[in-house]
Each structure stands twice: as structure tokens, then as C-alpha cells.
DNA sequence: TTGTACGCGTTATCAG
DNA sequence: CTGATAACGCGTACAA
């Protein structure tokens, strides 16, 4: 494998000069440049990027942590990140954690070892303290808002969104409202639960733990939701479904089983994914793609910033 | 940042010795090892992995090329790859190409520059010749079968699968059969089209170009399919849908629009995704996860191998 | 069992 | 404008 030294010898110049033409640096005469270029041609030389990485202490690689690669929510996020990565000449290293802390740690470790320059956590299971410990090794960006901590993030104000959606349903006459969610833990889920509790308190509604349905991520999880509801003596009349995928599944289920939407059951989805539009599902528009772009930009930025994404309710036919 | 040299000085040993304990190599006395370990503790030293990469000429990173990250088919594949990557201590670098050749080239370039050790193409737009040119830089694995070429691959015999599915529909009395597909180009699509043509020829059926519906990847693309069909004077009575996502969309559409399945329209999906099971869709089971695992293993293997995945028709309610 | 010395390939500094 | 030369940090023959 020919290297920069060989080129230098071949072109009759120094390695410095070779490096200069390789990186389009100024201060090199046309003759020498051509000589180097010729040598490059002749040897079909190519850089060893690892040497560059070592020398620069930088890899132009960014880590992206997601629990599930096949979940639409994260896929959209990644799409946004990938767009900016392409634009800024970064490569993406993907970590699928399934919410296992060791895997999240692996990503952090790579940041520490300088294999990646920065790291985006689209979601996490580990303690914030662990994240904090690694912040000195490179930029880390989160998808949640952590009060009083100096760390970049792009996030949705889950509390407000949830509260508003609940009020919307309440105004439509619903007093028994439930919700489905991916997991109960995590900042975002916590915010939602707070909103839910505060909403119930505000309107003096009772809290039914069974109205909160956990582990709902995919289209097919809708079956679980519906079966759960069927067994209830007093089932909710409206549901906040924190993924349009699941919402679509529920709508499908109801169509197949003769349950009228929104008359018998109202549904509000989340994300405003294409499937929600196609199926005319009322949903909360969350600009995931844009959020992904933000995340990337924040991960390469010098300063810390926090960006709250603007969301809005899209009124359609299911609520 | 403390390095191996500092450690050596601190522990009063040579860098070699440090390197030995760092990498669990034999031939180092307990005292020296402890001394080194102590130095490591004291300095909270950690490796610069890029130096390792340079020195070893290897990164333990694997590239994965997919056109669309948010497509379930590829997500499943990646899941399988990710599982083995984790097991074998490899990291994944993701390339979302949207079938743009330059982006595929970027991935190949990274292989050339040794930033990744090997490369998996889950799908591609570029010429095979380009791939071939890069095979000397590291293992490349494909998801298609290319006759007479020495390159590893895990693939489905698209021709046979398609032909059998078509015959299944024919036996059910269908003479007007169409199909939807992600794109018309590519080895796999070509094989399917060949099967389709041969099937028509075998039963002396006419070829309607309009029965082949292109650009169908996502759930919501089903709308396009159905609208297209509606406009036909003689619409197909059965459809092979090369993604369960799209098939699910079609079933949903039909339910909402009072089209009886399978009486008025028969549907066979592809992949046997969870959504197909939930919606009782007849489909072709393709072990994507396992295929992903294979791809990884082939990408780290010394020898070239070709693995045809076994598939089977899952009879359910839509055909 | 231990250490010296060099290689890995590139970039950056600094003197000319 | 050009070129020595010193990093960058680690692995590893080879010698001892």
C-alpha cells in the first residue's frame, strides 16, 4: 500500500508538500502540485483515514443511540440526523440499545475513546449522572428537557402537549380518558404522566391505573390495547396513543370489529406520520425530521443549546 | 490526556509491558501488572482507539448500506446484523443512500480508506462493476444472487418465490394478477419480473404493464395502488404485494371502502411481518432477521459463501 | 519475563 | 513557497 512518503519520493517533493496538495492547502507551486497529482495517479494512492484520525484527534463520526431501529419514531429522527450528517460530511455510528444500559455505556465509551466525535441520545435508560460523566469527552445531545443541566437537547414539551390533548378530549365530552405509551420510565414519559395526573386533578376525575397502557410501540401492539380495554368494566371513551403506528392499529382493529370511531372510541395519535394522514387519524404533529436535523447540528456546535420543538394538534376524523 | 508512555513512566515499566497488561497478553509478572493497573487507576487513563486502528490496520467497524432506514424490511435486516455485531464486538456505520449512487460510493470509499473493515449492501443502485473494483479492500456482502460472481451473499430466490405465489393465486382461479414493488430496477426486482413474465407465458395470459405498480414501499403507498386499480377497466383480481406494510395498507383501505377481501380482491404480502399476522394477511415468510445475522457473519468470514434463505407461503385470510 | 526501538500514515510547526 | 521533523498513541519484532 502506497503512502504519502512514497508519493513524496516519487514526485520528488517532501511529504509536507504532498499533504498540502492532498488537503488543498495553499502555498504550493503548480509544478510541484502537478508532480504530486501525477504520482497519485500513477500509484492509485488513497489515504489511510485512521492515520488522519489519529493525527487530528477527530473522526467525523457521530454516534446515534436508539432503543429500536425498527420503530418509526426513531427512524424519522435518524432520517433527519442522516440528512445533516451527509451535508456536513459526518458518518453515523448506530447503537441499538433495546434500553440496555450496557449498550448505552458502549456508546459513551466510544466517545471517550475518541472513536466518535459526539453522541446523540434519542432515548436512554441510563442515569443522567452517567451521561454527565462523559460530557467532557465530547458533545452529547439529548431528546429530552432536563431542568437545570447544561446539556444540549431538542425536545418536545411533553407536559404541555399531553395536557392540551387531554383538554381537547375533555371539551369533546370525554371524562374517561386513557393513554398508551412505549414505556413508563424516562423523562418524557414522566412528563406525560404528570400532565395526566394534573389533568385528572384539575377536573376532579378519578385515576384508573389500568387506563395507562404500557409497552405500546408498534402497529401490532394495538391488539394488546384493545384487548385490555375490552376487559374493563368501565373502559375509557377516548385514548391518547403516543405513536401513530399504534393508533393506526387501533383504528384498523376497530374497523374490523365494528367499533365506531370516534363515536364509541376517540383516538388521538402522536407524530403525524404519513399513516395518520392516510387513515385520517387526529394526531399531534411533531416535526421529527426537523428535530433530527437539530440534534445533529447541536452535536457539532460549540455551544450548548436547548430547542423546544413546536407541535400542534391536527384535527382529523378520530377524535 | 495521558497515554501509554505516561503510564509506563508512572509504573516504572516499559510501554510494551503496559500494552501487554492493557491487552491481557501473557508474560508479565504480577508485580508489574499491578503497578501498571495502579497507574491506570491513578490517571484514569483510556486508550485512544484511533491509534489502535492505525497500528492494527483494522477498526472493527462494519458498514451497512440501506436505501431507506425507515423501511421495515431494512429495519429487520439491520436488527439481525446488529445482533451479531454486538456479539462479535463490531460497530455499525449506517449509510442511508436513497438509492443515490454517490452515497453508495461513499460507503465503498470508506472501505477503501480502511475506516470500515467490511461492507454489507442490503440493496444497491450502482453497477456491480463498481462493487467489484472495491472487493480487494475488504469483504463485501450482498443481498442478491449474482450468477458467476465470487462474492458473498444472503438472498432469497425471488424468481421461485414469485412464481410459486403466482401459481398459488392461479390455482385459486385468478387469471388477472398484478403486483406492487419498491422499484423496477435491481437484481431482485428483475428476477421477480422474469417470474411474472414466465408465469404469464406458461398460462398464456396477457401482459398488462399497468398491473405492475412501482414505488410501493410504505403503508401509505397502498392508497396509490388502490387508486391505480380503480381506474382500470379490467382491474386485477389478485395482487402480490412485495411488502407487508403495503399489504396492510391495502387491507385497511379495502375495509374502509367496503371492498371484500379476498372475494373481490386477493392479497399476498411479503416478509411475514408482525403486522401481517395481526391483520391475518396471507404472506411469504422471509427470515429477515436471520438473513441479517447471516450477512454479518459472512462479512467477517474469510471465505466467500452464498446462502439462499428458505421462505414459505403463510396461508391466512387474504388470498 | 522485560524493554528498546521502530512502524503505522498523516498533519502541524517552524525554520528557511 | 518548501521541507525537515516532531508529534499523534499504540502494537510488536527483536534483542536481551
Automatic annotation (TrEMBL), chains A, B:
Organism superkingdom: Bacteria
An example Gene Ontology molecular-function term: DNA binding
HTH lacI-type domain segment(s): 2-56
Statement: the UniProt record of this protein carries the keyword DNA-binding: yes
Coiled coil: none
Keywords assigned: DNA-binding, Transcription, Transcription regulation
Gene3D superfamilies named in the record: 3.40.50.2300, lambda repressor-like DNA-binding domains (1.10.260.40)
Protein name according to UniProt: DNA-binding LacI/PurR family transcriptional regulator
Amino acid at each position: 500500500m502506497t503512502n504519502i512518503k512514497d508519493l513524496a519520493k516519487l514526485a520528488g517533493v517532501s511529504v509536507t508538500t504532498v499533504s498540502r496538495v492532498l488537503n488543498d492547502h495553499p502555498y504550493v507551486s503548480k509544478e510541484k502540485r502537478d508532480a504530486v497529482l501525477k504520482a497519485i495517479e500513477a500509484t492509485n494512492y488513497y489515504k489511510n483515514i485512521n492515520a488522519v484520525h489519529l493525527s487530528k484527534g477527530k473522526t467525523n463520526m457521530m454516534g446515534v443511540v436508539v432503543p429500536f431501529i425498527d420503530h418509526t419514531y426513531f427512524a424519522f429522527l435518524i432520517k433527519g440526523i442522516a440528512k445533516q450528517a451527509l451535508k456536513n460530511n459526518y458518518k453515523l455510528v448506530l447503537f441499538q440499545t433495546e434500553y440496555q444500559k450496557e449498550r448505552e455505556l458502549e456508546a459513551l465509551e466510544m466517545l471517550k475513546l475518541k472513536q466518535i466525535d459526539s453522541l446523540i441520545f434519542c432515548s436512554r435508560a441510563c442515569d443522567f449522572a452517567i451521561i454527565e460523566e462523559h460530557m467532557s469527552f465530547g458533545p452529547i445531545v439529548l431528546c429530552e428537557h432536563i431542568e437545570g443541566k447544561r446539556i444540549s437537547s431538542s425536545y418536545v414539551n411533553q407536559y404541555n402537549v399531553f395536557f392540551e390533548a387531554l383538554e381537547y378530549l375533555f371539551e369533546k365530552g370525554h371524562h374517561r380518558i386513557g393513554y398508551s405509551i412505549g414505556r413508563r420510565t424516562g423523562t418524557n414519559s414522566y412528563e406525560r404522566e404528570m400532565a395526566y395526573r394534573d389533568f385528572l386533578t384539575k377536573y376532579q376525575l378519578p385515576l384508573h391505573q389500568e387506563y395507562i397502557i404500557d409497552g405500546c410501540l408498534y402497529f401490532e401492539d394495538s391488539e394488546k390495547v384493545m384487548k385490555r380495554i375490552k376487559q374493563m368494566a368501565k373502559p375509557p371513551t377516548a385514548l391518547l396513543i403516543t405513536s401513530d403506528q399504534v393508533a393506526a392499529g387501533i383504528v384498523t382493529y376497530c374497523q374490523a370489529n365494528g367499533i365506531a370511531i370516534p363515536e364509541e372510541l376517540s383516538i388521538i395519535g402522536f407524530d403525524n406520520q404519513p399513516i395518520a394522514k392516510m387513515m385520517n387519524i387526529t394526531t399531534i404533529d411533531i416535526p421529527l425530521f426537523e428535530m433530527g436535523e437539530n440534534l445533529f447540528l447541536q452535536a457539532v456546535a460549540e455551544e450548548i443549546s436547548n430547542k423546544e420543538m413546536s407541535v400542534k394538534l391536527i384535527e382529523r376524523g378520530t377524535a
